[in-house]
Write a structure and sequence with these properties.
Number of strands: 6
Strand order of the largest sheet: 1-6-4-5
Number of domains: 1
Shape: globular
Structural class: alpha+beta
Number of helices: 3
Radius of gyration: 17 Å
């Protein structure tokens, strides 16, 4: 029998987190998305020991910085230390989930865009969440489909 799906809302958000337009936090480098979950016999996918340890340590690191909350749609900017030697895009899932878990964002599905880059300043990930005002539209980065003359 399947367990009911847990709430997608914040789990560890302190009461009264102030609403802000933008927030930046420094977090330890997460494990690669390739090792976040393990599959056990009869249990299905579950968080790996490495991922659970990162969630705990990164959660304490995040809470110590007392970030505000960015409600609604947002852009996520991640600067990952080049020394991490991981694929740049492997950092998004764990960090997005952590930001939601701690109430920095209401739901990680509200991310409209994620921008990723390398940095060499320190050994932590700099995660910036920038809220979008209601009705704000972002210019597309790339076309959704090729121009018709390219298809012919």
């Amino acid at each position: 029998m399947r367990r009911p799906i847990a709430s997608h809302g914040p789990v560890f958000a302190p009461p009264g987190r102030r609403v802000v337009d933008s927030v930046t936090v420094l977090l330890p480098v997460p494990p690669s998305v390739n090792v976040l979950y393990r599959h056990g016999r009869g249990k299905g996918p579950h968080r790996s020991d490495v991922y659970r340890a990162w969630i705990d340590g990164a959660g304490w690191r995040l809470q110590a910085q007392r970030p505000g909350r960015v409600p609604g749609a947002y852009v996520l900017l991640l600067a990952v230390p080049r020394s991490s030697r991981m694929d740049l895009d492997n950092s998004v899932k764990a960090i997005s989930d952590l930001l939601q878990r701690h109430g920095v964002v209401d739901n990680d599905r509200n991310a409209v865009r994620a921008l990723l880059e390398w940095h060499a300043e320190h050994d932590e990930v700099a995660a910036t969440v920038r809220g979008l005002s209601d009705g704000a539209a972002l210019e597309p980065i790339a076309p959704v489909r090729p121009p018709l003359e390219a298809v012919a």
